[in-house]
């Protein structure tokens, strides 16, 4: 710890008052039947994502009069929120609206005379996250026993308020660029979908799926060859299709292995069948994941045309215990493709936009790597803010 930094406990930097550290209502007090179509939004674990603020997608609400019966559980601008059950280690900072904590959440209201809330947010992205994880049970659903006592007892190190704000600004610049990329990527996806819908007009044709696409199924790489990340080559498994990060690598080589590159269309074959552009680094296609490549057209059209048939397959299979996609399902389906002129026009429009969307995702991963490299260095005082600023200026 650098000279001039302070060591304290989280309980020491909380705002005065009993409600500055609190958990959500007991489960029996906030049942699902209380949810409504509007009112005060409820923060659940799925609303704490990779960004700084609450992810407002898939929110549920309770009537305001219900929320006001739990005054200690209402969070406001600047409060930090954490799961104490489930996704331990995640953290978000509340923006400009009120929320109600769910039963699996806890909050911290900081004393602004001692610490900057955004600095504390980033602290819990680094050293504080490790502290939370060490306090969590690893049996069954992860959970922190005595969550309020545990949160209060976490050590925190901080410099002057001016330095805290400078550190938060450096890291925030990277997160702002990451967030801007996400917005542009989402817009690119919407554009491609819109262009596809407009292109399948009266000249559209229906083509058997297996005649229009080359389908490659992943290989059954063996468990004995699995390795830690960085050893061998990354495997792309179903669970990686949401994060675009390969958690398992392999040292195995197989004759029919398929290498997936950014922008390729992949589909998980269990539970839900959603075509996805792979946005991670190059990796090996594992079993229960397939790749779809267009015959005479690119990945943008391949993905858009696959949405409807995969949705139909998923629809008629729903109701079984675990649904699986297989080759015979695909053989019975057809794709709706634009006529020749519309197809060429779509390709000219969509493929450059898809390439840009993929490049933005690659840049976003690089920015996150820089942020995650700088964060522990800044939080320990091992790197000065002005040196970190030079690094950020080179990538933002």
TrEMBL record:
Keyword list, A-Z: DNA-binding, Endonuclease, Hydrolase, Nuclease, Restriction system
Superkingdom in the source lineage: Bacteria
InterPro entries assigned: Restrct_endonuc_typeI_TRD, Restrct_endonuc_typeI_TRD_sf, Type-I_RS_S_subunit
An example molecular function term from Gene Ontology annotations: DNA binding
Mitochondrion keyword on record: no
All residue ranges annotated as the Type I restriction modification DNA specificity domain in the record: 31-182
Biological process according to GO: DNA restriction-modification system
Family: Belongs to the type-I restriction system S methylase family.
Protein name in UniProt: Restriction endonuclease subunit S
């Amino acid at each position: 710890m650098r000279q001039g930094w302070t060591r304290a406990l989280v309980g020491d930097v909380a705002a005065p008052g009993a409600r500055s550290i609190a958990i959500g209502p007991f489960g029996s007090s906030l049942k699902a039947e209380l949810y409504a179509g509007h009112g005060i939004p409820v923060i659940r674990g799925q609303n704490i994502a990779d960004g700084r603020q609450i992810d407002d997608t898939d929110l549920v609400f309770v009537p305001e009069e219900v929320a006001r019966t739990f005054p200690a559980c209402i969070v406001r601008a600047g409060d930090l929120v954490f799961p104490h059950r489930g996704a331990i280690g995640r953290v978000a900072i509340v923006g400009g609206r009120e929320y109600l904590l769910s039963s699996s959440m806890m909050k911290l209201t900081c004393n602004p005379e001692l610490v900057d809330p955004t600095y504390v947010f980033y602290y819990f992205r680094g050293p504080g996250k490790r502290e939370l994880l060490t306090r969590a049970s690893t049996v069954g659903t992860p959970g922190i026993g005595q969550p309020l006592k545990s949160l209060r007892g976490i050590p925190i190190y901080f410099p002057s308020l001016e330095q805290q704000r400078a550190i938060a600004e450096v890291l925030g610049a990277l997160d702002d660029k990451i967030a801007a990329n996400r917005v542009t990527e989402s817009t690119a996806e919407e554009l491609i979908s819109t262009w596809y819908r407009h292109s399948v007009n009266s000249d559209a044709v229906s083509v058997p799926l297996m005649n229009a696409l080359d389908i490659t199924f992943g290989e059954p790489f063996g468990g004995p060859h699995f390795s830690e990340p960085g050893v061998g080559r990354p495997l792309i498994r179903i669970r990686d299709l949401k994060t675009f990060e390969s958690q398992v690598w392999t040292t195995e080589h197989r004759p029919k292995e398929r290498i997936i590159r950014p922008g390729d269309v992949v589909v998980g074959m269990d539970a839900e069948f959603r075509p996805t552009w792979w946005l991670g680094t190059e990796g090996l296609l594992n079993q229960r994941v397939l790749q779809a490549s267009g015959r005479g057209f690119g990945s943008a059209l391949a993905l858009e045309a696959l949405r409807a048939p995969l949705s139909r397959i998923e629809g008629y299979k729903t109701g079984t215990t675990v649904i699986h996609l297989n080759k015979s399902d695909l053989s019975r389906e057809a794709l709706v493709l634009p006529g020749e002129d519309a197809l060429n026009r779509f390709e000219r429009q969509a493929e450059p936009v898809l390439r840009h969307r993929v490049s933005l995702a690659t840049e976003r991963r690089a920015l996150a790597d820089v942020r995650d490299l700088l964060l522990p260095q800044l939080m320990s005082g091992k790197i000065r803010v002005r040196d970190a600023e030079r690094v950020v200026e080179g990538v933002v």
